[in-house]
Amino acid sequence: MPTSTLRGVLLAVAVVIGLLMIGQGFQSSTSQALTPPSPSPSLSPSPSVAVSPSPSRSPGLTHLQAVKGVKIQVLNGTTTNGLGAAVADDLQKKGYTVYAVSNAGKTDYQTTIIYFESGQKSRAQYMEQHYLNGAEIKPAGSLFTAPVQLTVIAGADQAPSTT
């Protein structure tokens, strides 16, 4: 028998044996394949459990990624004259692009709030962590019409202390 024919026969036999072995390892009935397996207790941690970073942490943004080209508006949410402008000035010095400074619709904000547009949460977290510690971080939704990524409502916690 020629060598190439013998090799072909050996290859075919090896493939058949391999398929049989694989079939033995994955034996299941049709009814099992159609129903999801019931959960069974496990002693090891489940790999589907995800630990999310705490809200005050920015997930690995550099300063440049967090501020370059980021348009913000700053609204004064207090009765302290010029607070919005002072916060905007500080943030502009850090590299943010200030689109607008104005007064909020009300003046009783105790805590500063950073509203973020879709996809901008990590930038809001960076701002809170590095410049506006303790600020609340919330999605903007449809609250604002300005073409900005972040809206800061400066609360009383940003006012200079009088002591």
Structure description:
Helices cover 33% and strands 16% of the residues. By secondary structure, it is an alpha/beta fold. Strands 2-1-5-3-4 form a five-stranded mixed sheet, covered by helices on one side. α4 links the parallel β1 and β2 (97-103). The protein is rod-shaped. The N and C termini lie far apart (103 Å).
Can you lay out the helices and strands and say which pair or pack?
Blueprint: H1 3-25, H2 30-34, H3 63-67, E1 71-76, H4 83-93, E2 97-103, E3 113-116, H5 121-130, E4 136-139, E5 150-154
H/E topology pattern: HHHEHEEHEE
Major sheet description:
5 strands, mixed
Structural class: alpha/beta
Distance between the amino and carboxyl termini: 103 Å
pLDDT averaged residue by residue: 79
The amount of beta strand, in percent, is 15-25%
Number of helices: 5
Helix content: 25-40%
| Poorly predicted regions | 26-58
Spatial order of the strands forming the largest sheet:
2-1-5-3-4
Which word captures the global form? rod-shaped
- Total number of strands: 5
| C-alpha Rg (nearest Å) | 30 Å
Oligomeric state of the chains present here: single chain
Key terms:
single chain; five-stranded mixed beta sheet; alpha/beta; 5 helices; 5 strands; 33% helix; 163 residues
Summarize the structure.
This protein has 163 residues and is an alpha/beta fold.
